[in-house]
Specification:
Layout (H helix, E strand, L loop, with lengths): L59 H9 L3 H9 L1 H13 L1 H4 L3 E5 L5 H8 L4 E6 L3 H11 L6 E5 L11 E6 L12 H11 E8 L2 E9 L2 H7 L15 H9 L3 E3 L11 E7 L10 E9 L4 E14 L27 E3 L1 H5 L5 E3 L7 E4 L11 E12 L4 E10 L7 E9 L2 E9 L1
Parallel strand pairs: 1-2, 1-4, 2-3, 4-5
Antiparallel strand pairs: 6-8, 6-10, 7-14, 9-15, 10-13, 10-14, 11-12, 15-16, 16-17
Length: about 425
């Protein structure tokens, strides 16, 4: 943070070369783009870009990213996320009439579980695409379930693979931390523009990124205040380094509704049927909050939800196999929110996004059932005391890093109680 009023919330920049690939963020990584090999007849292929980091536009960062997804632990964590996996399964069967007898592409298929759900829902053919060598295991999973006649596993990037027909459905679990980390949505957009028929189905169809100011004294005490008295020894000299290590970069962790000081703000609403790659390169929003309580402001939390809705006039089926039921109407998730457009015009009008009773929602809000995405927290080095009804306002810019487009640059300006600050960080 760079204070403008003599405060000490300084953000210490770090040489980005210290993390060449940046593929270490809590040891959890999501999926990426693809070069092409049909694995139905069996032999593995090198991950695109290895040995030559610029083949087919695949950079050395992409190659390292794809390689990270060859580890089974990442896929185990995602599959064991019951909220995630059961919601996707529910959505597939909710739209069974749009999938049965149709052609599907699964962008970033991983182990192939979503492709198999689609095949079980009656898809005529599923193209399961992934640039990681996990596609080799996915092909074996497909064989073991006697679905090789329906599922074609392609090892390669969506940008490079060849599919010689239009598709009716695109399904993908593309969401990263803070929704946009890893930039995988670009691959979904590419698949849409290359293959999706007019009026085709995209699952999920919409996504919304939220932010809200938070108070979290326990976390601050555990990471910072701890050093002031360690077994009776004054180790306060460690505090500046502790703050840098704990709060320099965004932190992925779980908070609860009581940590949130206000109604959330909509940073970005994404319509997967219309969004463009260029639109995602830089996102800017102005926000204004009114604190609901007196508490120390420790930073901001970010979370998202995604909706599974078809294009206009597409029917869905009302027989989901999941026990999750319909989308959450949570206080902090997809209920009342502040429109980013409205706030940009100086209005703090709240609105409620209308949903049909059948729309499934996967929410990562603080008071909803936890997921492996948790929430992303951007902490200040020093808390700011706020009173009830005190205004917290400023602007947020999220941009793809020039160093590596899968990284997310964060520029946050905020003002409260007459003091203004800037916090800059990179999600690597």
């Amino acid at each position: 943070m760079l204070p403008s009023a003599g405060m000490s919330n300084g953000y210490l920049r770090k040489d980005s070369s210290e993390r060449k690939f940046g593929l270490v963020h809590r040891d959890k990584l999501r999926k990426g783009g693809r070069s092409s090999k049909d694995l139905r007849h069996g032999h593995g292929a090198k991950v695109p870009g290895q040995g030559n980091p610029r083949i087919n536009g695949c950079t050395e960062y992409d190659a390292a990213y794809f390689q990270s997804y060859s580890h089974v632990g990442i896929h185990e964590e995602m599959i064991k996320d019951r909220v995630r996996t059961e919601t996707y399964r529910s959505a597939i069967f909710q739209y069974q009439s749009a999938i049965e007898g149709k052609v599907v592409v699964d962008v970033g298929c991983g182990t192939g579980i979503l492709s198999i759900f689609c095949a079980l829902a009656g898809a005529k053919r599923v193209y399961a695409v992934d640039a990681s060598e996990i596609a080799i295991q996915a092909n074996e999973v497909v064989k073991a379930n006697n679905l090789s006649d329906k599922i074609i596993v392609l090892l390669g990037r969506v940008e490079d693979v060849d599919i010689d027909e239009e598709v009716d459905v695109i399904i993908s679990e593309w969401m990263g931390y803070m929704l946009l980390y890893e930039s995988m949505l670009s691959s979904v957009i590419t698949a849409r523009d290359r293959w999706l028929k007019p009026g085709g189905l995209i699952l999920p169809s919409h996504a919304t990124l939220y932010m809200a100011p938070i108070t979290h004294s326990d976390r601050y005490n555990e990471s910072i205040e701890f050093w002031r008295n360690v077994y009776g020894i004054d180790m306060s000299a460690m505090v500046p380094l502790a703050k840098q290590c704990a709060f320099e970069e965004p932190s992925v962790e779980t908070i609860i509704g009581e940590n949130v000081l206000t109604w959330p703000f909509v940073v970005k609403h994404v319509d997967c049927y219309t969004v463009t790659i260029v639109e995602l390169e830089t996102i800017t929003a102005k926000y204004k909050f009114v604190s609901m309580m007196q508490a120390p402001l420790h930073g901001f939390a970010f979370w998202f939800d995604v909706e599974f809705a078809g294009p206009a006039n597409m029917p869905n089926d009302n027989h989901s196999p999941s026990s999750l039921g319909e989308g959450s109407t949570s206080l902090l998730g997809d209920s009342t929110t502040v429109s980013s457009d409205a706030c940009a015009n100086g209005s703090n009008q709240r609105r409620k996004r209308a949903k049909s009773m059948e729309t499934l929602v996967l929410s990562t809000a603080p008071e909803d059932e936890p997921t492996h995405w948790q929430q992303t927290l951007l902490y200040f080095y020093e808390p700011v005391d706020v009173k009830q009804d005190q205004v917290i306002e400023g602007s947020l810019t999220l941009s793809q890093s020039k160093e590596n487009p899968r990284f997310l640059n964060i520029h946050l300006e905020y003002t409260s109680g007459g003091r203004s600050f800037v916090k800059e960080s990179v999600m690597r």
